[in-house]
Amino acid sequence: MVIETYNAEETYALGEKLGMEATEGKVYTLLGDLGVGKTVFTQGMAKGLGIEGPVSSPTFTIVQEYDEGRLPFYHFDVYRIGDVEEMDEIGFEDYVYGEGVSLIEWANLIEEILPEHYTQITIEKDLEKGFDYRRITIEEV
Ligand code: ADP
Ligand code: MG
Fold first, then answer.
1. Which of 32, 47, 74, 135 would be a feasible disulfide site paired with 95, CB 3.0-4.6 Å?
2. Hey, whose CA ends up nearest to atom 23 of ligand 1?
3. 3-state secondary structure of 58
């Protein structure tokens, strides 16, 4: 499925919709270059899960957990991962096979340890269609 957005609010709203629809144990991967809107999307998803507090990128940790919503929300940013073994150390499997909703930014860096099935979200720019245009592809893997 491909969704086109023309401003940050539309990307936020798409994240919010997916957050409202998310069920226990669901895993989402989020791919896209820097500045494409991954944080905007993530903030929408958190809102859709009923999380009111601020959600930013986990800068000093690989994962940030939010427990105040409808379901636990595990927000991963694996951009700075050196080795997939670091994921074992933080208990990756406990999160991903746990009851919460996982969203993994830069999941392509840890492809070999992803679960068998997940929902892959890719955000891309297309400057020919305008500076704020984004093509968001959602696929079941
Ligand atoms: P990332 O986390 O992928 O590095 P951010 O979400 O931090 O990116 O930043 C995306 C930037 O792009 C924001 O400044 C946002 O306002 C802007 N933007 C413009 N158009 C869009 C759009 N259609 N969807 C998402 N963000 C957009
Ligand atoms: Mg970001």
1. 74
2. 7
3. coil
- Rounded CA separation 57/138 (Å): 21
The string of pLDDT tens digits covering residues 78-95 is 988 888 888 998 999 999
Mutation test of ligand 1: which of 40, 45, 136 has the most ligand atoms closer than 8 Å to its C-beta? 40
The residue ranges of the chain whose pLDDT is under 70 are: 58-59
Cα separations (Å) of 137 from 11, 20, 68, 101, 134? 12, 18, 29, 19, 10
pLDDT, tens digit, 9 for 90 and up, residues 30-51: 999 999 999 999 999 999 999 9
